[in-house]
Amino acid sequence: MASRADAIPIIGGTGALGYGLALRWARAGHAVVVGSRSEERANETARKLSELVPDAEIEGLPNEVAAKQGPVVFLTVPFRAQSENLNNLREALEPGQLLVDCTVPLAAAVGGKATRTLGVWQGSAAEQAQEMVPDGVTVVAALHTVSAPDLADTATELAEDVLLCGDRKADKAKVARLVEAIDGLRAVNAGALETARIVEQLTPMLISINARYKTHAGLRITDLPDGDHWDA
Amino acid sequence: MASRADAIPIIGGTGALGYGLALRWARAGHAVVVGSRSEERANETARKLSELVPDAEIEGLPNEVAAKQGPVVFLTVPFRAQSENLNNLREALEPGQLLVDCTVPLAAAVGGKATRTLGVWQGSAAEQAQEMVPDGVTVVAALHTVSAPDLADTATELAEDVLLCGDRKADKAKVARLVEAIDGLRAVNAGALETARIVEQLTPMLISINARYKTHAGLRITDLPDGDHWDA
């Protein structure tokens, strides 16, 4: 598969969130590139996805190659691997690309609880990502609150919101189009990139609610007006 | 009105959130005690509420007297006034009472933005409250995300969740019953009191969303099981 405008590279696409997103996007007709540190595992996941969605365009590639295959690159790795991955992507990402950071700084990264977070010097994992990407690459934060198991179980009908944080609406609109290509997800403009300091915290709260209610909870913002916020 | 088990004291009941809650609880048949630093303003608000809900039991009292009138006391003051109010309540609150802290540490308290928060040494405004109340008084955090204008406009049908944080389910259940006495509000068990560090951050996020979408947004947790979580 050659690099193409509608392909979606997923760095860490063999993990739970990346896999679930890849599956949903493949079903929605998007070309998906599964990235992994290990080309073998990337291929394995791509093969598995191809069996589930036989008519989809899915390829497995090493992260650094995957990142070159589309304009909007999703980073879906655990927090403890975020810096290393961003370091490895320095030569791969190019000005004009968007990096969608889905990282949540759970305290679990250092052996703490998944219901607590770590403080990140820059304010949030997404702001750390913005500091680390090459000049001209812009970070949008998204997809912190969607359950990976729900994404991976295509029998589950989604009906929830995805909060987007970023400094330019035009960038967020591009990500919103991809998010809303997945049935049942609505993209909500949560504010500037710094708002990721809040949005990243929602994951441990939902993890805590999930444990208590034995569910895969999501989030919905009430009373938003009808009509397409992202249109022009 | 004598102190009674079903009366709801609201410290700062002349403010926007306190007033909206008082109105909704009065309409739901609860006796409400509007507290204020100024007895005159407390009386004024109580009179206004009595005109709107003529058959309701509503009284205006100084905060320190109001706090003695019911078992579950709501604190609905701005963050910059929280410490002062808690100092003033030290002699008024008694062991066994619950204090429901609704405070949000918006940066607006020190002239900053309402879309940002201040760091609170104890972790959250609610944890600061727990440190300041007399021994034997327990703090539950709640009601950060419900729009005060929506509460005050009884033509608005609410349909949203209220996240409760507290260290004992039995305490949260008492607060949940009062929250759910207001039509359209569902109380969700968000976790221990320390989770207020997350929940208090939702207000600036919603303020930011409100500005962008010109609405009074609220929050809904998706995929919670049916049935009454609070029942035993």
Structure description:
Two copies of one chain form a homodimer. By secondary structure, chain A is α/β, with parallel strands linked by helices. Chain A is built from nine helices and nine strands. Chain A has helices at residues 16-27, 39-52, 63-66, 79-88, 125-132, 148-152, 169-180, 196-199, 202-213; strands at 8-11, 32-36, 58-62, 72-75, 98-101, 138-141, 160-165, 185-191, 218-222. A six-stranded parallel sheet of chain A has the order 3-2-1-4-5-6, with helices on both faces. In chain A, strands 7-8 form a two-stranded parallel ribbon. In chain A, strand 7 (160-165), helix 7 and strand 8 form a beta-alpha-beta unit. In chain A, helix 4 (79-88) packs parallel to helix 5. Chain A is globular. The relative contact order of chain A is 0.14. The mean pLDDT of chain A is 96. The interface between A and B is large, with 36 and 37 residues. Strand 9 of chain A pairs antiparallel with strand 9 of chain B, so a sheet runs across the interface.
Layout of strands and helices, then pairs:
The structure is a homodimer of 232-residue chains.
Chain A: E1 8-11, H1 16-27, E2 32-36, H2 39-52, E3 58-62, H3 63-66, E4 72-75, H4 79-88, E5 98-101, H5 125-132, E6 138-141, H6 148-152, E7 160-165, H7 169-180, E8 185-191, H8 196-199, H9 202-213, E9 218-222
Parallel strand pairs in A: 1-2, 1-4, 2-3, 4-5, 5-6, 7-8
Short synopsis of the structure:
The first copy, chain A, has 232 residues and is an alpha/beta fold. The first copy, chain A, is built from nine helices and nine strands.
